Amino acid sequence: MADQSRQGAAEETTVWVPALLCRRCVRLLSRHVRDVTGVTSFEVDAARGLLRVRGDVDAGHLRAALASAGFAGDRCEHRRP
Ligand SMILES: [Zn+2]
């Protein structure tokens, strides 16, 4: 009973996304994360650049999805200065 946080399918994956800098990033990223296989829910901590995903998710797939959305680096690539 002390171990309620572990419920098999409800795994959590946290990915650091340093490029998550603006609101546009959050919206864009949310759209792509939703499409990743196995994602049941997710939350974005834009202030710290963290993406927390729940579900049976392959971290490699998640990173690939982020990369294709333009979040591979440490700054937003869709935003022109
Ligand atoms: Zn951005």
From TrEMBL:
Domain of life: Bacteria
Species this chain originates from: Microbispora maris
InterPro entries according to UniProt: HMA_dom, HMA_dom_sf
Pfam families: HMA
Protein name (Swiss-Prot/TrEMBL): Heavy-metal-associated domain-containing protein
CDD domains per UniProt: HMA (cd00371)
Family matches, as SUPFAM superfamilies: HMA, heavy metal-associated domain (SSF55008)
Domain HMA: 11-74
Cross-referenced Gene3D superfamilies: 3.30.70.100
